[in-house]
Structure to design on (430 residues):
């Protein structure tokens, strides 16, 4: 098992490109495979999670080639009905997005398929997609309580209006993808607006999609035009360096070409609320997504109260936000974030346990955390729980500790961000 040792080496300085967006990379593959004709995707994230999605479609007969440029992929879409049954179970690895979005596609197929995953994915709740997809007419079996593996017998779907009890882009996307195959209008509404990449990309594919507040409808059966797009940098990956620069004195960095989609940009709002010096430069649109260069300078942060709609807009950034809170003056209270308990690890429990090892007073709430900031973190021997975002967050925390900190079990970083350590070293003094 890999481990990474880190210590306070001084300020983070310079420019970097965040890796390509993970959510958008998954969707680019899925929609291109369902489109009729050749799609070209630039800046695709070659990391374990989106490669699971890509591999699943290859196994269902879709031709996917890498292009000449790094991160370029070329997909020969065969239309909505062009998939063939895979020869055996599809392994989704650690990727919840692969399993949940693929379920939406498989629910419509005239064959039976099985989706499996690693130990972490096997503990993640799938009832949230089983319920609507079953209502649409798919037959899905799971382990007791709605856990993987899933066996999906698809076909003959009917459109529904699904009122999701959770704000989840994975649930919303699974239902919308299944809706593409239905005859009529499928609608999903959710309690708060989750990331809208699926909607933006379906619209780029020419699908009849309507959005009204937190409600989205697609009309099927849809004919998708191929995609020609460039995936923007991932704000969720940029967030680690942004927090690193904020908490290490003397830092100043620019993260180039990063997605700032308003359904994802809660991290920027929260950090600004805490007193961060963050500026957006060169704001523009790339392939239907808002993008900017993000300039971040070391700042004295203060604790904040974080809840409500901000939570869903920053859902993946809470581990690193906890690190910012640990270094802020005063108390940070996070509530309404129960979803953190069912991510790649229980991120409330993981962050509470690991920050305590570094001397931080943390109280665990059922749906959040209370963190008392402190000036100096104590070096420690840290667990990642096999969760990429816990590993990277705690490496960032280690940059401000009094001595060497070791983070164990760091291979998981490759699920979303191969090259994380190289980029970090490039920003630190030699
Ligand atoms: C994702 C949606 C979010 C997020 C995950 C990626 C997506 O999950 O946490 O990392 O790509 O749709 P939920 O839909 O479970 O909130």
């Amino acid at each position: 098992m890999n481990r990474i040792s880190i210590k306070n080496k001084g300020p983070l300085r310079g420019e970097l490109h965040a890796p390509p967006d993970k959510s958008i990379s998954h969707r680019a593959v899925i929609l291109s495979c369902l489109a009729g004709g050749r799609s070209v995707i630039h800046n695709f994230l070659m990391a374990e999670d989106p490669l699971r999605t890509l591999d699943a479609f290859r196994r269902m007969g879709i031709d996917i080639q890498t292009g000449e440029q790094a991160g370029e992929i070329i997909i020969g879409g065969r239309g909505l009905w062009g998939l063939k049954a895979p020869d055996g179970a599809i392994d989704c690895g650690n990727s919840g997005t692969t399993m949940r979005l693929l379920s939406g596609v498989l629910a419509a197929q005239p064959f039976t398929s099985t989706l499996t995953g690693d130990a972490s994915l096997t503990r993640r709740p799938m009832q949230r997609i089983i319920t609507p997809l079953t209502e649409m007419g798919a037959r899905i079996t799971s382990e007791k309580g709605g856990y993987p593996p899933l066996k999906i017998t698809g076909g003959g779907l009917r459109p529904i209006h699904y009122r999701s009890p959770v704000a989840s882009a994975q649930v919303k996307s699974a239902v919308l993808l299944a809706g593409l195959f239905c005859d009529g209008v499928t609608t999903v509404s959710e309690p708060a607006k989750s990331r809208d990449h699926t909607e933006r990309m379906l619209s780029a594919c020419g699908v009849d999609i309507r959005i009204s507040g937190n409600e989205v409808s697609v009309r099927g059966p849809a004919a998708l035009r191929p995609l020609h797009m460039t995936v923007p940098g991932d704000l969720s990956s940029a967030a680690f360096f942004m927090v690193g620069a904020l908490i290490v004195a003397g830092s100043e960095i620019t993260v180039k070409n990063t997605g700032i989609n308003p359904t994802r940009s809660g991290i920027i709002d929260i950090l600004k609320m805490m007193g961060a010096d963050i500026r957006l430069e060169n704001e523009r649109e790339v392939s239907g997504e808002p993008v900017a260069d993000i300039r971040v300078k070391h700042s004295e942060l203060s604790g904040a109260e974080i809840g409500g709609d901000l939570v869903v807009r920053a859902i993946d950034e809470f581990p690193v936000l906890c690190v910012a809170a640990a270094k802020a003056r005063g108390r940070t209270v996070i509530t309404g974030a129960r979803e953190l308990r069912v991510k790649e690890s229980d991120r409330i429990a993981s962050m509470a346990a690991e920050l305590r090892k570094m001397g931080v007073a943390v109280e665990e709430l059922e749906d959040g955390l209370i963190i008392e900031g402190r000036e100096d973190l104590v070096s420690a021997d840290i667990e990642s729980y096999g969760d990429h975002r816990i590993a990277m967050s705690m490496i960032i925390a280690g940059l401000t500790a009094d001595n060497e900190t070791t983070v164990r079990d760091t291979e998981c970083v490759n699920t979303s961000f191969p090259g994380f350590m190289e980029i970090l070293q490039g920003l630190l003094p030699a």
User: Anything to note?
Assistant: The domain at 22-220 is CATH 3.65.10.10 (UDP-n-acetylglucosamine1-carboxyvinyl-transferase; Chain). Residues 270 and 306 are 7 Å apart (CA to CA). The two ends are 27 Å apart (CA to CA).
